[in-house]
What does this fold into?
Amino acid sequence: MIFLRGFNSALGWSKVMTNRNTAEIVAKALDGFRIEVPSWGFANTGTRFGKFIQNGAATNIEEKFSDAAQVNLLTGASPTVALHVLWDLPGGLTDVPNIQKLEAQYGVKAGSINPNLFQDQDYKFGSIANPSSEIRARAIAHLLDSVAIGHALGTKDVSLWIADGSNYPGTQSISKRIGWMEEALAATHQALGEGQRMLVEYKPFEPAFYHTDIADWGMALELARRAGPKAKVLVDTGHHLQGTNIEQIVTWLLHVDGLGGFHFNDRKYSDDDLTLGSIDPYQLFRIFHEILSAPAQVTDAVAFMIDQSHNLKGKLEAMVQSVVTAQELFAKAALVDRARLAHLQDSCQLVEAEECFRDAFWQDVRPLVREWRASRGLPVEPLKALAESGYVEKISRDREARNRGSVASYA
Ligand code: LRH
Ligand code: MN
It folds into this structure.
């Protein structure tokens, strides 16, 4: 499809855009685009000030698989669901056969395995960085269980978020804690099977409010490197202090082949876990641009995952909306004329370069994405198809009784 749009002889930019088959570029990009949904995004979650119960929220792992399958059915882009060990496999390895049954029943696979080292009372002063060697041993045992679960399920990533830290200066030895973490991550790396990786997620604060042991990308990268070649860094877009240039961090991690994956969400203030693209869609566009600008051998293994908490939006609607928005922003980023941009950047034609870059962002790719959906036998409007399916009404009826008992209050 060739179209002449806003030709501007002075700058002559858009002339370049018309020569490229945008529909083909968008289709190729979407054919390769996969994003993992989080099981916990379907459950009733809230903030520390409480949670608003949704009757249709998933109350068990089967319902989470059912919801994840619905999202994949509607978008064609989310064939895996991230699992959180304590929430989804409370029986550990003994729950694996049930997960395998659900995978077969619902046609979506288990994805990244997320250990939980932040809920247990023992972890008050930390888990793998706790001064108590008994508690560190317990935490390491949970990490090894998580690796074994991933191995048994044949999944690739064990995704570690360590909440450890302290709330007051002088109350913990930051240096000793680094050493303890290295021991635990080395033991975890040692246990990884063929094809498995461990992803180290960083976060500047919360639940700790003075120091967090893995607070930024540099700490995560160094710990991953010291653990071994199967360890990479996970970038949660909500885990950055205000003003941080996230796409620059992404570019660095790609440059040093240290990027393992993403937890996508959006935020206005801190780790708000809002739906991706809801506050700053240009942010995700800029991240996707860096990914698409890097050599394939570095980016092919980069895992795209959603990590959100749907406190007010309908859980299914929010998840379908997030996958669709990610597809649209990825399609826009695929339309950046990187050859022309490189020329304009290298010749320091700033305005022309910015216009060439943003030109893709301003493109309304939705008609092309709808075309791609139709050509792949997918619903052209996933959110509309969800509403027309009656799925949300059905699960709200079926699950109401189980959700009625849910605790809404924080304290
Ligand atoms: C921590 C985090 C982590 C998950 C949790 C649900 O803020 O991003 O990735 O384990 O959210
Ligand atoms: Mn996360």
